[in-house]
Amino acid sequence: MILGIETSCDETAAALVDTGGRVHASVVSSQADLHSRFGGVVPEIASRRHLELVGPVVRATLDEARLSLDDLSSIAVTQGPGLVGALLVGLSAAKGLAWSRRLPLTPVDHLHGHVASLYLGPDQVEPPFCCLLASGGHTLLLDIRRRGSFDVVGSTIDDAAGEAFDKGARLLGLGYPGGAELDRLARAGDPDAFAFPVARVSGLDFSFSGVKTALLYAVRGLGAGELHGRRADLAASYQHALVRALVERTRAAAAGLGLTRIAVVGGVAANSGLRAALAEAVFAPPDLCTDNAAMIASAARYVLPVPYPEYLGLDAYAAATG
Ligand SMILES: Nc1ncnc2c1ncn2[C@@H]1O[C@H](COP(=O)(O)OP(=O)(O)OP(=O)(O)O)[C@@H](O)[C@H]1O
Ligand SMILES: [Mg+2]
């Protein structure tokens, strides 16, 4: 039984996963409300809130599964990438818990965690497959030949897909993070009402800054009164452009790699337009798309644990290791 802990951004999360990938408990405490009035995550506030929540969230997770620390075989924790102050809270808590029981500790890369959301539950995806990882901080196309590793074959040259959704939502006057709200608004709109561009960057990379600027100009071009009536059309057309870019490049990557199976993970995998447009793909379950600790415990199954007491020297890292 692995206890996973995730604190890389603004979700404090813990989960219990067994070696077969069954989730026994998963608790996610989102700080989104705390950060919404700032229009984004404030790192220092996130760290302080993680500090308050990490203990109670671990306790609630153990209670949910009716287990205690005595039942654990190891502890897994996100080491990076993410906000360093936020990561350090989870890493320190995990070190303390592991040390108190002389348990091994497994440091997990957050991006490997997102992919490992596909290796949970009864319908686990088996490599080889082409994976689109689209989240708030990353947009990657991955060649996956075995569990626990991947090769990056494409990435964004500017904004991440989730960031593009959030910035678009903000232009439309929605809250933060607005991706899910924009998705809801788009359902009532016409995706062909506005012609937003899909960037033509070389290879398998993405660019979302142009479409974001196109939305800005469209919003500016409408009067305040008119804007309100067209918001759903703007949302639907903007989402349509983002989804088209994601779908085109993902299909091209899979074809180029000779892979017939496509999987999608990360917060943007929850998007209903993407799910409909890439109907042949396997999507992570909606509750495992955005940050959670079940995916971290899942990924730990494919990483060598660090024995006591060597892990006490582990440090967090902010940027993707490549
Ligand atoms: N239904 C949806 N449609 C579009 N975007 C969505 C939807 N639901 C969530 N998102 C977006 O997903 C992102 C959050 O995903 P996730 O939690 O995986 O990212 P993150 O952890 O912040 O970034 P990273 O994993 O790269 O560090 C946000 O940008 C959010 O707006
Ligand atoms: Mg994430």
Describe this structure in words.
The protein has 322 residues and is an alpha/beta fold. It folds into 2 domains: 2-117 and 290-313, Nucleotidyltransferase, domain 5 (2-Layer Sandwich); 126-284, Nucleotidyltransferase, domain 5 (2-Layer Sandwich). It has 11 helices and 10 strands. The strands form 2 sheets. A 5-stranded mixed beta sheet has the order 3-2-1-4-5, with helices on both faces. The chain has a 5-stranded mixed beta sheet with strand order 8-7-6-9-10. The chain binds adenosine-5'-triphosphate and magnesium ion. Adenosine-5'-triphosphate binds next to α4, α5 and α6.
List the helices and strands and how they pair.
Elements: E1 2-6, E2 11-17, E3 23-30, H1 32-36, H2 43-65, E4 74-80, H3 84-101, E5 105-109, H4 110-116, E6 129-134, E7 139-144, E8 151-155, H5 161-171, H6 179-186, H7 209-221, H8 224-257, E9 262-265, H9 272-277, E10 282-283, H10 286-289, H11 294-300
Parallel strand pairs: 1-4, 4-5, 6-9, 9-10
Antiparallel strand pairs: 1-2, 2-3, 6-7, 7-8
The chain binds adenosine-5'-triphosphate and magnesium ion.
